[in-house]
Amino acid sequence: MSNDDAKAREINLVCMSGQGSVQTVQLLARAFFEQHGMRVRTQVAPGGRPKSSPVVSYLKASAGPIAGGPNFHPDDVLLFWSGLLRVAANRAHPTVTDAIARQRSGNLIINSRLAPGEIELPYKFSGAVATVDADSITNEILRRDPPPVGVTMAGAYIAVTEVVELDRFLALVKERFPGRLGEQNVEAARRAYEEVRIEREVVGASQEVPHPRGPEDRVDPLSRPPLPVLISEDKGRPRGYRGGAANIWRTKIPVSDDQLCGCDNMCISEVMCPDNTGFIVRKGLPHQGYRVDVDLCRGCGICAEVCVYSALSMANEEELMRTNPTYEGITVEPFINYSGEGGRS
Ligand code: SF4
Ligand code: SF4
């Protein structure tokens, strides 16, 4: 993109907390400013928790004055986790839905192992779809779990859009992260730049996802119909008690070592669960243990952190789905017969 072409641009970076969208949006803003002399404005809609809650970072870059607020017509959307598409399709999180489903054209760049043609877009869209396995690239190079994929995703973004020069951007990355961390991020961004797969002229589903702006859009999440499986990466995940997951954006899930689970009365993990979805089962199992409704657990890890006897640990869900596809010991059937008494405990 030449300086003359540098017109106003709106970019949404949608991630889970810890994935690095805030630093990335600042780096991209600086790149726009330094390369094109554009005015830039960034804004962050932070997640409610330090882990496992969605964060949306907005960037506006323009030759003229810039209004504040979220982006209403994003040219580019970067999804740091492909499951966020499903969140948008089901309007499970208003800010995420707004940030993704408002895009009607432009470039959609997704952190996914799938090819662009395998991504099912649940809303109206006509433009370029690109995918890059940013998790694997970042994990391999930075060896962090969960991998902070922000700069890696920016490498893919620059390859797709060419809005800023890669080398200029990478110089800013090195300045922001001095030393080895900077080198690693630069390597990850270069890999993503080379490995991103792009399909131009993709047309999404015709479904109109209404913008969750008015009170009429604030529907009870539990009243929604069961969710369609939109992304094949989700296949294999069992349904929870609600008949479909509105709120799954976790990467980890609590696993109970029932032999260690020993509180007689109150279970502090159950009490502290912010979604009221983890619970203790005292009857109907060989030993009491902690279980979750897989529809609603967000994988925040609070239950494991507060567990009195360290009976809970957070397991990588992708690995778990391979070794324990029925989630045995993690969830229980809602109709389990607790010695004929019914109920949860
Ligand atoms: S706090 Fe931990 S050990 Fe105690 S009942 Fe709950 S899960 Fe079991
Ligand atoms: S069960 Fe544990 S990980 Fe899941 S939402 Fe509750 S506190 Fe968080």
Give the SSE map:
Blueprint: E1 9-16, H1 21-36, E2 39-45, E3 54-62, E4 76-79, H2 83-89, H3 94-101, E5 105-111, E6 126-132, H4 134-142, H5 150-161, H6 166-176, H7 180-195, E7 197-203, E8 252-256, H8 268-272, E9 278-281, E10 289-292, H9 302-306, E11 312-316, H10 317-323
Parallel strand pairs: 1-4, 4-5, 5-6
Antiparallel strand pairs: 1-3, 2-3, 6-7, 8-11, 9-10
The chain binds iron/sulfur cluster (SF4) (2 copies).
One iron/sulfur cluster binds near residues 273, 292, 298, 299 and 301.
Describe the structure.
- The chain has 10 helices and 11 strands.
- The longest helix has 16 residues, at 21-36.
- The protein is 28% helix and 19% strand.
- The model is unreliable at 2-6, 209-234 and 335-345 (pLDDT under 50).
- The chain is of the alpha/beta class and 345 residues long.
- A 7-stranded mixed sheet has the order 2-3-1-4-5-6-7, sandwiched between helices.
- The chain has 2 domains: 9-217, Pyruvate-ferredoxin Oxidoreductase, domain 3 (3-Layer(aba) Sandwich); 238-323, 2-Layer Sandwich (Alpha-Beta Plaits), CATH 3.30.70.20.
- Residues 261-263, 267-269, 280, 290, 307-309, 311-312 line the site of one iron/sulfur cluster.
- One iron/sulfur cluster binds at residues 254, 273, 275, 277-278, 292, 297-303.
